[in-house]
Amino acid sequence: MNVDEKQNSTTPPPSQISNDYLIKDGDQVILEINQEKLIVVKLQKNKKISVSKKDVESNILIGQPYYSLFQLDGKTVKRVTQKELDVQLEGIVQLNQTEDANNKDLGQNHTSQKLTQDEIQQMKQSGKDSSTIIRTLIENSSTFQGKTSFSQLKYLKKKIKKYTTVIKVIKPTAKTLNSLYYSSDPKKICFLRFDTLSQILTMANIHSTQKVLLMETTSGYLTGAIAERMNSPDGLIFVPHIGNGGPNLSIVKNFGLSKSTLDTIKSFELKLIDQLNQKNLISSTSSNNNNNNNNHDNNNMDIEEQPDKKKLKVDQTLSSTTSTKDKEILDLIENGGYNSLIVVTKYSPLSLTLSLFPYLNASGQFVIYSQFIQQLLEVHQVLQDKNLAVNLNISEIWMREYQVLPKRTHPEMSMDGASGYILTGIKVKTTNNIKPTSPISTSTSTTTTTTTTTTPPVVEPTSLEMNVDTNNDNDCDKKRKREDDTQ
Amino acid sequence: MLNIKRKIQEGDKVVLYSGKDRMSLVVVKNDNTIFNSKFGNYRIKNLIGVEYGSKVYSNDEKGFLHAIALNPELWSITLDHRTQILFNLDISTIIFNLELKNGSKVVESGTGSGSLSTSIARTVAPLGHLYTFEFHKERAEHAIRDFTENGIKQYITVTHRDACVDGFKLENVEGMVGYIDAVFLDLPCPWEAIDNAVAVMHHGSMLCSFSPCIEQVQNTCLKLSESSFQEITTIEVLIRTYDTKYHKVESMDLVNPYDSTNTINNEEVSNSSSNTDEKPQQRQSTKWGQSKPQSFTVGEMKGTKKDQFLTNVIKESRGHTGYLTFARYIKEE
Fold first, then answer.
1. Quick one: closest CA in A to B8, which residue?
2. Domain A174-427: assigned CATH number
3. What spatial distance separates the first Cα and last Cα of chain B, rounded to whole Å?
4. Looking at CA atoms only, how far is residue B102 from chain A in angstroms?
5. Contacts of residue B249 in chain A, CB cutoff 8 Å?
6. Which part of the chain is the tRNA (adenine(58)-N(1))-methyltransferase catalytic subunit TRM61 C-terminal domain (chain B) (predicted)?
7. Which of A297, A426, B235, B314, by CA, is between 20 and 30 Å from A149?
8. Do residues A280 and A309 touch, judged by C-beta distance below 8 A?
């Protein structure tokens, strides 16, 4: 299930299925029912799960490999292979061998089936197996024999789904869970399609040691997807939540993540960040200081435990915080060393993005998602006008599935046209601009040393000067802005 | 590339950003190297100790650029292309659908310019590994050089080999055969490599084939369905990038026959907006916009001209990159 176990356990010979791919007691699994519906269930020994109104003993599934198929036919449940199902399907009836069949005689009315609904229902309740029922249906169909073998097969597949249930046990991953939620309850995951999600994970530079600032209302789906990819105790996913009811990360548990990875997910109220911003705003206007994120430290990652949300009083202000818990939270905000910011919520992204933006390191990447391009336009405009970011791009994805069959390959007739939009960019510093002070001609005397040390060389005051640039709207900026505009 | 630093050190590869189409990769050396660009000349040495993301001024202080840390996405833009490289969106989709994560063991063929390899290495490091195969000797050598320079060499094994003929099994490499979590094929005849892929894959692992032509897809899918693969799906993804910037927008000041309040005072119409359709943007542009609205005339007709922040799809778009076929290997017992 997780990497820790994989490494500790003795590796089985390659001919066997690895322990990771066997269904275990206590696993959260996805069940694909008749290749149509997906549900997520927890398997527990000696307990029953309900599939299509029928009870299935968990024990039948436990110990079998993932992606195995189980057929619920009549009153029995047994493991089957795809080949067995194919044979079963072909065994029902001899398919049309002639090529010249067509649908010229096919009527639009529903009179081709001679059996009544009651008669079919009776057959079903008598516990007859699916093959017998379908064979009877075909015998009583006036049009079946005139169909091409292709459409006959299509008919059989449709019928077999109706009279038998085949379930496939799928290992939950970001991909398989996406197809589950996107098909059953897309709103729950902010209509996040798999390709958009994949682009978010790439553009936010998610990897094992990344420190991610994440604002999401996808019930923990995105948090889980990021944690799954990082799969490491060295990362950090900081997910502020809105409201004092605690974070809604219910989907995270479906990923089957290891404890050490789960421990990298931290959450507390967004309100605390808002209060901190308010405080910093007051102090910066009074002392005319530079930005508040200059004391970030990449190595300062000694946050040991998740902040306890229940102990935090709503009315508690940050200025009066004294307990160690609160100090840890402050540390988590200010010294997280975040190089990645992701905003995927049902809310308008502008205020959320700006609120978290000060805590993203310069040169860090951010990805803002919205279903509506206008909302991203707003964010783009503010970030550009305030010179907070470069390489700003709004994009959407056009994705099409294909039916690939011999001589019948074409794009699927229906496609999903709404990928949503993402805004990507790289944060830049707005203060402490680097200006050279000495002309090139005088620098020829500088000794070139081939240093192998990893510590950064001390910046010599003669070669560099840190200028606090308070006026961001200088000529050069304007010139560049025009340049950017024309690109 | 994977250890994100705050400050630029000697030996770092730094992206000098002066526009979306103007990004250059430089290696920071403590010598007198000068970087010349349209926006002035820069002494590279001066970058040492500077915080990543800083705005750096040119030697004459007239131009500037931003010093950005290198990542796999910027690398794929700035690297020197030896082959047709995979595009960012295809890479994202491949990595996601192959279910890659830290710890995955991956086989790739061919390496090409190493753009996908770099993204895969970023994702599977440090617990996983990428075994990449390239039948072009020079490309394989160049890739090794790049991976070494980018600090990801320890996660990638580059092999100069024709994988269709000689397969993916590596001598003296433990924990490879039967432990591969994902295989990626970018080959002229991917179906010829599928048996070799199966030989190293485990139950439940994923395969992806990238092909520009539908005939290749056809053959690949046929071979996959004959070789105990399931969930065979073929998709195509294309990115639509939006051009977003300020535009000078002119609108005519006319009487609105559907709004009685607008018919009385024409002057007011010209001062406020007559463009009722775009209310939110109108408000935005007066708040953040560059200049105040100006009036103009066409003959006797009056109008208002102002900056508006607008977006539309970039004209030069890519019509096709390749078809992505994914399948899961289900071991038969």
1. A456
2. 3.40.50.150
3. 43
4. 6
5. none
6. 63-329
7. B235
8. no
Q: Determine whether the interchain pair A208/B125 forms a contact, defined as Cβ–Cβ distance below 8 Å.
A: yes
Helix or strand run (H / E) with residue A348: none
List, for residues A223-245, the tens digit of each pLDDT value.
999 999 999 999 999 999 998 88
Query: In this predicted model, what pLDDT tens digit does every residue of B262-275 receive, in sequence order?
Result: 644 444 434 444 44
DSSP code string of A98-112: -S---STT--SSS-S
CB nearest A401 (choices: B54, B119, B235): B235
Residue contact B218–A409, C-beta within 8 A: yes
d(CA A165, nearest CA chain B) in Å? 18
Cα separation of A390 and B54, whole Å? 11
Q: Please, where in chain A does CATH 3.40.50.150 lie?
A: 174-427
Contact at CB, A427 and B53, closer than 8 angstroms: yes
Among candidate residues A242, A248, A267, A244, the one with its CA nearest the CA of residue A313: A244
Report CB contact under 8 Å: A428, B54.
Answer: yes
- Where do runs of H (alpha helix) occur along A288-392? 324-334, 349-356, 373-385
- Quote the ipTM score: 0.89
Q: What is the average per-residue pLDDT within B140-150?
A: 93
Q: Cβ B72–A205 below 8 Å, yes or no?
A: yes
The helix (H) or strand (E) run that includes residue B208 is strand B201-211
CATH architecture of residue range(s) A21-101+110-169 = Roll (3.10)
The fraction of chain B above a pLDDT of 70, given in percent, is: 91
CATH code 3.10.330.20 region(s) in chain A: 21-101+110-169
Q: Which of B6, B88, B242 sits opposite A361 (nearest CB)?
A: B6
What is the separation, in whole angstroms, between the first and last Cα of chain A? Answer: 48
Residue A403 CB coordination number (10 Å): 12
What domains does chain B contain, in order, with CATH numbers? 13-70 (3.10.330.20), 75-238+320-329 (3.40.50.150), 243-313 (no CATH)
**Residue A374 CB: number of other CB atoms within 10 A?**
14
Residue A441 clears pLDDT 80, i.e. is over it: no
